[in-house]
Each structure stands twice: as structure tokens, then as C-alpha cells.
């Protein structure tokens, strides 16, 4: 299991999110989780807050952001992995509420995957129009 710490510090805002996950190579369709692509699946059913040790129940929006981020690299994973299925299980998140935006789950898990599967990292630029405005994540696609 590997941990990736996603950090962005810009004038006016900062984001921090640690994500610990593991990849399991399977021969049969996973019995838990949700498909991200044909062979890559995501399981976020047993996630703890790494700072406090309590169980986190991720909202559907948060799981959607994880799926979106993993979807950015799932094709790359499928190209290098020979297993019929790859299940990515998110085990822990390091969250400081003041520096957390659920949208950051997407680039965090994409970066985790790039690091753990030795993929070319995907560039994701974060911006914000105002100190309280929404975040914009540009994947340069």
C-alpha cells in the first residue's frame, strides 16, 4: 500500500490531501467496488481518516471524484498490467478540513496511480477565481 500526498499552495489558497490505496490483481470480476473502465475498478467502502483513525463514509460525490481521477489514468494502467482486473482500494485519506476540497480527490488518486504504477504523471493545474470561489482543475486535455 502506498500513500501519496497531494499539495497545492498558491496565493490565496492551499489544498492538501493524502491518499493511501492498494492495487489488487484479480482474475475474476471484483465482488466489491465500482468499475472505472473495462479492467480497472475502484473500492472506497472501507476508508479511514488517517489523522483521527475514524471510519469515513464517502459521499457519492467524493466517490465520483475518485472515479474521475482514476479514469484519467485507467487506460495507462490497462496498457501495462496483464491481470484481467485491477482493483484499486482506497484505504485511508489524510484530510484537514480547512484545506480539503472533494474535487482534489481526482488529481490525488491520479497522482497516486502514476506513482504506484510508474506511469507518466498527468498534469492537472488548479486555479480559483476568488478566495471563496470554486476550484477549477484543468487536465490540459
Write up this protein.
The protein has 141 residues and is α+β, with helices and mostly antiparallel strands. The protein has one domain: Ribosomal Protein S5, domain 2 (2-Layer Sandwich), CATH 3.30.230. It has two helices and nine strands. It has helices spanning 60-80, 105-116, and strands at residues 2-10, 13-26, 34-35, 40-43, 47-49, 55-56, 85-95, 125-128, 135-138. The strands form two sheets. Strands 1, 2, 3, 4, 5, 6 and 7 form a seven-stranded mixed beta sheet that branches. The chain is globular.
Helix and strand topology:
Blueprint: E1 2-10, E2 13-26, E3 34-35, E4 40-43, E5 47-49, E6 55-56, H1 60-80, E7 85-95, H2 105-116, E8 125-128, E9 135-138
